[in-house]
Give the backbone structure.
Amino acid sequence: MASLDEQFQQACDARDLPGVVLLASDTTGKFKYEKAFGMKSPGEKIDINATFILASCTKLMTTIAAMQCVERGQIQLDDDVSTVLTELKDIQILTGFNEETNEPTFTPAKNKITLRHLLTHTSGLGYTGMNPLLTRH
């Protein structure tokens, strides 16, 4: 079986992966493994300082961190998260726009958003590009 380095190099050579930067540290934060594979752009190799747009990949890291807080008893899954995320306190729901003034109209949310809602994507928070009202707002 090929080593981890060989597997990543082969995947990049075959263009199964465009590029990868791997870093692993010990509990003190000292890096024990640093490798970069693939190309940043044609003719330019990726180095360990390369940056990537992670987008939804951060959901995994956020979930792990949140569950560690649950394990430590710092928050429970069904707690109202507005105590931590104060911008969610007294949140309102965009219901439309006033036809005369073109101002947005809102209604108060009936339920509080919990950590469980956020982690399971059931909070009711919308994505701007996927909701015509939010796009307009």
About this structure: Strands lie at 19-25, 31-41, 44-45, 92-97, 104-108. The chain has two domains: 1-52, 58-137.
